[in-house]
Amino acid sequence: MDKARLTVIIPSKGLEDLLTECLTALSVALSTVCDRVDAHVLLFDNGSQQPYRHEQFPEVNEIIRFDQGRSFSEVCNTGARARGSDLLLLLNNDVFLHPEALVEMLDLIQLDSVGVVGTRLLFADRTIQHAGIVMTRHRPHHDFRLQRTETVSRAPRFCPAVSGAAMMIRSDLYKRLGGLLEDYNFGYEDIDFCLRVRRAGFRIACAQKVDSIHLESQTPERIVLDRTARMLFKEQWDDRYSVDLLL
User: Does the first or last residue of the chain, that is N or C, have fewer Cβ atoms within 10 Å of its Cβ?
Assistant: First the structure.
C-alpha cells in the first residue's frame, strides 16, 4: 500500500525553545506512523528577530522565512501551495503531540465522509483545552473545556469544528475551498474553514484516544488581535449555522 504524502505546516516566530519541544514531540509522533505517511515538515519563520537556521531544528525538512510576519491563514495557504501532498497537518508551535496522536487522526481522515480531523488537547494541568468545538447562540465554544480529561469519553467525536492548533485536512479539499480565508487576520479562520467544509458535504472529526498538550495563547496581544476576527466571523456566520448549545 502506497504511503500518503503528508505536509506538516508549522508557523512560528521566535520562541526557539518552545518550537524545539514541539518538533521533538512531532518527530516521535511521525515515527509512530512512518509506515503510513511520507512526511515533509515545513517550518515557516514568520518574521523572527533572529532568522531560524536549519542546524537548530534537525527535525525540519524545509524552512521558509517571511521578513514581515503574516497571518496564520496566509502562512498555511503558502504551505499548502508549496508542495504536492495528499494530507496537510497544520500545527501550532505550542502543541506537543502525544506519540500516538497521529494514529487515530489518520484512521479518521481515511473515512470517505471526513474532510478534517482535530485531536484532543490538554492544558498542562491535565484539563481539557480542546475536545471539539460546538456552536452556541453567540459564539463557538470549546466543549468540555477545563474538565478533567479522565471524565470525558474517548470515543471519536463528530462536531461542527476543531481547532487549527492541530488540524489534519485532505489537501484536495483544502485547495478546492481556497484554503483558510485570509480576511481573518488572527483567530476564527479554523472555525470558518470547518463550517465551509461541512457546507461542502464533509464531516469534521476530533480524535480522542490520547492527550496532546497545547499551551495556548503564547502570541503577544492575542486578545486584541482576536477582536477583529471575532467581529468578521459574526458578520459572516450569524444565523447561518445550527446551534448546539444555548449558552
Answer: N
Does any domain span residue 206?
A: yes
Query: pTM of this prediction?
Result: 0.92
* Dist CA 246 CA 234 (whole Å): 16
What is the distance between the alpha carbons of residues 105 and 173, in angstroms, rounded to a whole number?
16
Which residues is 247 bridged to in the sheet?
A: none
| CATH number for the domain that contains residue 168 | 3.90.550.10
Domain, as residue range, for 53: 4-237
d(CA 67, CA 104): 36
pLDDT tier for residue 161 given thresholds of 50, 70 and 90: very high
Residue 219's H or E segment, with its range, is: none
Flag whether 244 is in a domain: no
CA 120, CA 130: separation in Å to the nearest integer?
6
Tell me 55's DSSP state.
Answer: G
- How far apart CA 92 and CA 2 sit, in angstroms, is 28
pLDDT per residue over 163-188, tens digit each? 999 999 999 999 999 999 998 887 88
Q: How many structural domains does the chain have?
A: 1
Work out the burial of residue 44: count CB atoms within 10 Å of its CB; fewer than 13 is exposed, 13-18 middle, 19 or more buried: buried
Q: What is the pLDDT of residues 50-107, one digit of tens each?
A: 999 999 999 999 999 999 989 999 999 999 999 899 999 999 999 999 999 999 999 9
Nearest Cα to 207, choosing from 124, 102, 85, 79?
A: 102
